[in-house]
Fold this sequence. Notes:
Distance between the termini: 20 Å
Helix content: 25-40%
Strand order of the largest sheet: 6-5-1-9-10-11-12-13-14
CATH class: Alpha Beta
Shape: globular
Order of helices and strands: EEHEHEHEHEEEEHEHHEHHEEEHHH
CATH superfamily: Ribokinase
CATH topology: UDP-N-acetylmuramoyl-L-alanine:D-glutamate ligase
Number of domains: 1
Structural class: alpha/beta
Mean pLDDT: 94
Number of strands: 14
Amino acid sequence: xxxxIGIGNALVDIMTSLEEDEFLEINELPxxxxxxxxxxxxxxxxxxADRLKKHQVSGGATANTIRSLAKxxxxxxxxxxxxxxxxxxxxxxxxxxxxxxPCMMRADIPTGTxxxxxxxxxxxxxxxxxxxAIALTPEDLKDDDFEAYNILYLEGYLVQNHDxxxxxxxxxxxxxLQLAIDLASYNIVAAEKDFLKPFVRDHVDILFANEExxxxxxxxxxxxEAVVAFAEMVDTAIVKIGPRGALIHRGDEKxxxxxxxxxxxxxxGAGDNFxxxxxxxxxxxxxxxxxxxxxxxxxxxxxxxxxxxxxxxRWGSIRKEIKKITSE
Length: 328
């Protein structure tokens, strides 16, 4: 089995259920996007959402993926930065509770938070105050932390830190790791395309994108055309097409993996868990069809719960379903 390490923004998610999408319009937050906000804006949003139902969980896109991989028995590690505070302690302990090997740096600023505003249709919009997460620097990445791993997984939310991603790519090449990235948000793709295109072409082996991110990367191309274009840049390209499933392209192989039925409560973590399922399949040496089926299985399950954490009973059912998938 392959071993996987991730680098990401270590954030505590504040899951908030919206009664109406008007809240997003009033606060100038495009539905489905991830917006970076300052501390005062974050506090203002929390005050405005004071009467709404909410709960707090550890989060960040990469950490969501890494935790789910650990739940499936993959040896994993996570690199991030939190504050010297109780939220930082909570974050690191939860990773260890999942079986993840944490490599956490501590900053003299508070742990970052992400207000996840979940609409009635399950779509989520993030207002993120990075806090200590943004203090992760290229110098924090030490070669020795990547020993014995086979895949390095990055979240697209790190793309604005060009030097950090460049350093991660250098270490990945030096240590002979495959580099995987999820593009994460269409607005970040649009803003960072000049950096992303050469970075993807020169460094990335496995790329995940959804329809909106693919269209932002390749304006005017359909998902079917985009996955082919991505496959000309990377070894394995995946374009997720919502309930319809996912398009996967590797070399001469092209696979359409159909989506799984699910009752959507909250889409938060869907892409992160899809990536976890896919990377699990790769770590087990499965073919693209089975790998894609497992990816869809995890993505479909997490949208049936609020937030990104699934209970032990659900994980038990997932493991049984994986056995069925791999025996077909």
